[in-house]
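Today's session is about reading a structure prediction critically. Students often jump straight to the picture, but the first step is always the sequence itself: look for stretches that repeat, for charged clusters, for runs of hydrophobic residues. Only then move on to the predicted structure, which in these notes is written as discrete structure tokens rather than atom positions. Here is the chain we will use throughout the hour.
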Amino acid sequence: MAKTERELTYVPAASQAHIDGFIEMLWLEKGLSEHTQQSYRTDLTKLAIFSNNQGVKDIAVLTTEQLQDYLAYRHDKGLSTRSTQRALSAIRAFFVFLISKQVRVDSPVSALSNP
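Below is the predicted structure for this chain, in token form.
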């Protein structure tokens, strides 16, 4: 990640709108627990903040390479493999959601393997 005097810690509006739509779908269509919804929201928020610091204001447009950078960042921070696998599961489901809503036509996650 490029070093700056101060890293951004907020989620841009475009990313937040996609995350909110995804979490709403988890509740309405999948009936997932509040805990699962919160875990997914946390994982996607962390991705959105990382992406924002990389200059990407909407996580819906991320590439496979950018996701690989995020996974490398998590590894460099010493986050556990299990935690990263859970985050990748949330990210994978998020991009399936974006495809179902015709926001994307492909998933940048499909070329990634589990850590």
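Discussion point for the tutorial: Confidence is low (pLDDT under 50) at residues 1-5.
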